[in-house]
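Troubleshooting log. The previous run stalled partway through. Resubmitting the same two chains, unchanged.
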Amino acid sequence: MLLLGVTLLLLAAAGADPSGSAASLRGPLHASAPPPRLLPQPVPEYGAPGVASARSAAEAAVGTGKEELEAAEQQHHGGGYRVVQWEWSYVQTPYIIAIWLLVASVAKIFHFSQRFTTVVPESCMLILLGLVLGGVVLLASKKQLYQLDPSLFFLFLLPTIVGDAGYFMPARLFFDNLGAILTYAVVGTLWNAFCTGFCLYAAKLLGIIEQVKADLMDFLLFGALISAVDPVAVLAVFEEVHINEMLFIIVFGESLLNDAVTQVLYKVYISFVEVGVENVQTADYFKGVSFLIVSIGGTLVGLVFAVILGFITRFTKKVRIIEPLFVFLMVYLAYLTAELFSLSAILMTFCGIGANKYVEANISQKSRTTVKYTMKTLASIAETIIFIFLGISAVDKSKWAWDTGLVSCTLVFIFVFRAAVVGQTWVLNRFRLVPLDKIDQVVMSYGGLRGAVAFALVVLLDGERVKAKDYFVATTIVVVFFTVMFQFQGLTIKPLVKWLKVPRSTNSKPTINEEIHERAFDHILTAVEDIAGLQGYHHWRDWEQFDKNYLSKLLLRKSVYRKSELWEAYQKINIRDAISVIDQGGNVLTSARLSLPSMASRASFPEVTNVTNYRENGSGVCLDLQVIDNVSGSKVEEDMETHHVLAGNLYKPRRRYQSHYSRHFMPLGEKERQDREVFQRNMRSRMETFKSTRHKRHKKERSLKKQRRGSDTKDDGGDKPRRNVSWQDKPVVVPVEPEDDKADHSDPEKEEDVGITFTARKAETPKQRPKSALDVCQSPPPHTPSPPTEDSHLPWKGSVGSPPPCVSVEATKIIPVDLQQAWNQSISSLESVSSPPAPAEPVHPRVSALSRLG
Amino acid sequence: MGSSSSSLNNVPDGQQLMQETGFSAAHLLRLYERFKFLDKDNRGHLRSEDFEAVPELSENPIGDRIVGAFFLPGQETVDFSSFVRVLAHFRPTEKNRTRAGAQPEPANSRNRKLKFAFRLYDRDRDGKISRTELLQVLREMLGMQVTEEQLQSIADRAIQEADLDKDDAISFDEFRKSLEKVNIDHKMSIRFLE
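Second attempt completed without errors. Output:
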């Protein structure tokens, strides 16, 4: 059914536009240099005003398009004022594009809802879709009219793709492995480009390639554009086959930077070809080296804009709505500026990489989400358009010419030279502390997948100057098809890697023990890696110092900057403060969590229904367990259930989720949620250990003092901080010292990021909404004494699912009465805890730390 | 290489540690740098606060246990040699076992790796993972959505599955048996330390 609908849409799109789509696509771009070849047809004025009645444009065009038009024409000549008019030519451009994207998106829904997602990669699907679409258009109009416009590509499609990649690049890992990335991207790409070019030329001289009329320069040009590997798609496989994050970042970084190298080479060659090889002076060859200037210049432009962007977002507190706009505009401007100076615009990804940290910290949670989604959407649109162009061009025979020699030679050469990765790796491994092993190398060399960029570049060649363009187009299409379809995901690379890997004995399902312990091992390994500091290199310390001293001060909002310092402040907090934190927050909360499993942060996740379902599910299992434990048949089922629970809920080690980069998926805050949960637990337990040691020490002291002071009341340490909190008062008012940076902590930010803030006014009538207050405030956050550097852990800055803090940092805070119910419920379990229950004073730790800082 | 081995003299007990743990000089140097970095006040030893200052650890559900494993029982500080000795557990096993035979079992053997993991569970060091101990670990490692009953049932099942002598606890032998099929060397090795 869906297929039928898609086909119908295709027909509609194709039929509705018998001509002039090239023009339509160029619609918004007329300002840029108009390439003459792109507008071969005169656009007929069939879109004259007429009657369209209630039928949609697409519908009208299906089947009886021509007649309809003629009729419309006649009616138009009939004259008279029409309220409803047929304005096809007016809406044509956006209409066609919208229909295309709609079709592609519908196809994606279909694609991802089906099983074969794992077998057929998405880019395959898009190409196939393009083929179908192209075929339909060809049938409808007999002539292929869609063409990729250079300005469309370079000014709109490319920046969205690279902007997305840059913005989501994990900066630290990237710079840690910069050496390897640069080697692969620059040396590897240059090697590929030159070798492919020269070898193809040699093949031509040898007569293997017969029909193609091209000289060395043309082949070099072709070699350059075909050598850019686009491994982003390979990354999807990486997740499947346990690829370490280092390889991930290397491949990802390479995919970014080699585009830049290819672009530069391409431009240099193009200018050579345009001038004509015979006119190129020897000195001009050295200008090819200018790619260094071009690259460094592009990088600098990116970084400058990153600084400006960070600086601007520092002051956008009052204009939250347009915060995302600033991000997009600055990234885009960075790209355009680089383009303006004909620097490597693709390197403006550094703008995204550099700005990310500061921007993310400055802008509000909602803006962050908007930026994320919009970036992804734009990139996805751009990629879709390119792939559809690819499919369409492949159908139209007039656009390409076949030469078996060229095609087969190219395929062989790109394979062979890609394998040179092994050589580079060998050299690199001599310098790297973490060597790349054989499987990594195989994956890298085999994953030499050519994508949209190569195709776009080849299509943009000037047919007048490069005589062999049509052959090159055909070859590129074949290469892209071949690498995407056969070499890639599911089809061959996954089995290959699996075959290469040490066969894991997974004949049987893992036992529960194995599942638990293996995950534990993962965590152990991650922790030890963190302790041994294998991630960071030495120079990071200098950089972090610089960042802290200058950049952060300049680019981060004062409040954000302060907050991130809290983490360090925590380390330096003196014993007295720490004690008060424990006595007031830590213990009570722990017991609250234990005794009231259904409250605390559990219910505050966004997927409340989900959670409840789960819980029902769980308790059902437990019931069953008691009832049918003896029945052996159901035991298997329960085991399954246990596995299910384990698989769903075991915390994932960091490396697992960090290697998630996909153009079309986002991790949905899973990481942040987990991090926050774990962080809070850890802080709590640390506080407790801290406290227990203190108790021990304290007891010792006390026993020494006993003779002098006589018997002490128990636990005098806990008394002090509780002194100013009145447990009986209905709304507990916690006085807080005024802060000097109150302005930075003012409400707008919190109100925007956080569901509910309790202010003094609201708390005056706490009785009126007893239930809801409890529901919302189930998780008081006092156990987070201080957030780590990334502020995603700050309860009030966290993702959507963050437990809404009941209190914000203001001069006077009210804690809703209903929390006391929770305390009362939890009191029963407090016997085990050494110190008596204390009322919640969630503000205290944070505030005390803050005021200390202030 | 030459320069690094010459500065190995700065590392306390450098030569001896190299012998004992099988680390190369470059590794030791690197680890020593890291050690000095963690040791913020230059005391020459690490306290648990120093470990806790590693921000990533606070996001590791069992991070504190692992930190605890660095400390010998009863001690509150870790000096460089014990730091390295703990890390030696995570060296991948050599393919060509040259040092097999008379020498004591190296820290990176499968057995020692398992023992290290086992001790993380076995908090009271009685040689057994009791139900309570397992439950604690599970509580740390599972998300908040899991109810206490679910945790209990998981712990029960895990013990049932591994417990061969029916003493309601997992001994080291049972622990090892239950993980027989797991490639420990792969799971518990850091490639950097090769």
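Takeaways: The two ends of chain A are 65 Å apart (CA to CA). The CA atoms of residues 579 and 717 of chain A lie 7 Å apart.
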